[in-house]
Amino acid sequence: MQSLAKTSSNSLVNDWLQSHDANTRRSYLKGIEVFERWSQSEPEPFSGVQAVVRGSQGEANLVIVRYKSWLSSTGLAAATINSRLTSIKSLLKAARMFGWSSNTIEIPNVPSKAYRDTRGPGLQAVKRMYEASSSLRDKALLVLMANNGLRRGEIAKMDWRHVDFGSQSIEITGKGRKQSERISITEKTMHALSKWKGQHPNPELNQPVFIAQDPKSYGKRLTGRSICRIIKSMGAKANVRATPHGIRHTAITAALDATDGDIRTVQRFSRHVKSDTVSLYDDRRKNDALSVSKLISIG
Questions:
Q1: Is 5:13 a contact under the CB 8 Å cutoff?
Q2: How many CB atoms lie within 10 A of CB 184?
Q3: pTM of the full predicted structure?
Q4: Which of 27, 127, 254, 287 is at 20 to 30 A from 43, Cα to Cα?
Q5: Cβ partners under 8 Å of residue 188, min gap 6
Q6: Burial bucket for residue 56 (CB in 10 Å: 0-12, 13-18, 19+)
Q7: Side by side, which strands form the sheet with 163-164?
Q8: How far apart are CA 220 and CA 207, in angstroms?
């Protein structure tokens, strides 16, 4: 199927995608392309986008009911199904804004339990990953994640101009935010960055901090996917199942331990918009403590 983003008949999709950052564009485009493939494979093929945008309110919602049912039948996780539906709802919102449609989607998302496992591999496992690595780049990347709870997307966007060795701070653009913010980092984190900078082939201010080192892509900025592969590889060397988000979970849980469950302080550390999200981490942390208590109880 010809890419939706390249067909002249889908200027709405193009305009809509361009209003989002690269990661969101990738996710939304994937969602719309899956939607179109499904609609084109129906017994009576049709354009899903045209149906929800140009059809009646009832027709649009009927299409989404059928699409949601199909997604559920494929065995996808609730979060993935909801992501696919969100793509369509976001597109339709843009269509209303641009005057292309007045339709709204009334179909609810699939119920899902967020943050089912908020623990991550644990601090000791992360330390083993650090010790097992011989790469200064990978060590600096892991330290930023573990010591500051950074997301892979935040790390991927960093240039050397964002690192201030004098004030021991870095400038990042958080998830879903337009403006950057400066956060302080520890001496150990700064030391890891300094050692990597000494080996970096081109540590100019406008150059990315973390670059590819393989021959094919050498010197190019690491993507979020590349960072994920690096973390998984580091974990495998230390016999640890690890992902970037898992390292972030570990950092947040460790911060709650260190602050005796100070939700507000840890919210500032994790940069979550809602304190309820941090509370989920704290609830899981306390439940783990209760489980251990039951194991060692006497009397």
A1: yes
A2: 12
A3: 0.66
A4: 27
A5: 143, 147
A6: exposed
A7: 163-164, 169-172, 181-184
A8: 9
